[in-house]
Amino acid sequence: MTTLDSLLAASDFVSLNCDLNPTSFHLMNARTLAKMQPSAVLINAARGPIVDEPALVAALQAGQIAGAALDVFENEPLPASSPLLQMDHVLLAP
Fold first, then answer.
1. Under 8 Å CB-to-CB from 70, ≥6 apart: which residues?
2. How many Cβ atoms from other residues are within 10 Å of residue 74's Cβ?
3. How many CB atoms lie within 10 A of CB 93?
4. Spatial distance between the Cα atoms of 30 and 76, rounded to a whole number of angstroms
5. 43-56, pLDDT tens digit by residue?
6. Quick one: CA dihedral 74, 56, 84, 45, positive or negative?
7. For residues 49 and 25, what is the distance between their CA atoms, to the nearest angstrom?
8. Which residue(s) pair with 92 in the sheet?
9. In sequence order, what are the residues at sequence separation of 6 or more whose Cβ sits closer than 8 angstroms to the Cβ of residue 52?
10. Distance (Å, whole) CA 51 – CA 44
11. Cβ–Cβ under 8 Å, residues 85 and 71
């Protein structure tokens, strides 16, 4: 067993595979994304609202994390204006 902060700091890949509930809503936010390594990749295969998308965009733009792979989004479908669509280090799946 370990803490979330320790896990985030030590992981090369963080894969989200949990349900959406009051404790997991925006689990990945500006604070938790800042705990990740600059070489780490965030993968969300769970529910879109687990990731605070504006915080993710900011972390990617600032180089706080290396990339992201998402097959779920906070707002579905992903709006055409989303900055995530323009990022080379982001993999998006419908």
1. 43, 44, 48, 51, 84, 90, 91, 92, 93
2. 19
3. 8
4. 21
5. 999 999 999 999 99
6. negative
7. 6
8. 70
9. 26, 28, 29, 30, 74
10. 8
11. no
Spatial distance between the Cα atoms of 88 and 6, rounded to a whole number of angstroms: 28
Q: Give residue 75's Cα distance to chain centre.
A: 14
Three-state secondary structure call for residue 91? strand
What tokens were used for 92?
């998006």
Instruction: Give the SS3 label for residue 94.
Output: coil
Amino acid identity, position 81:
S
Structure pTM? 0.96
Give the separation between CA 1 and CA 21, rounded to whole angstroms: 22
Residue pLDDT, tens place only, 38-90: 999 999 999 999 999 999 999 999 999 999 999 999 999 999 999 999 999 99
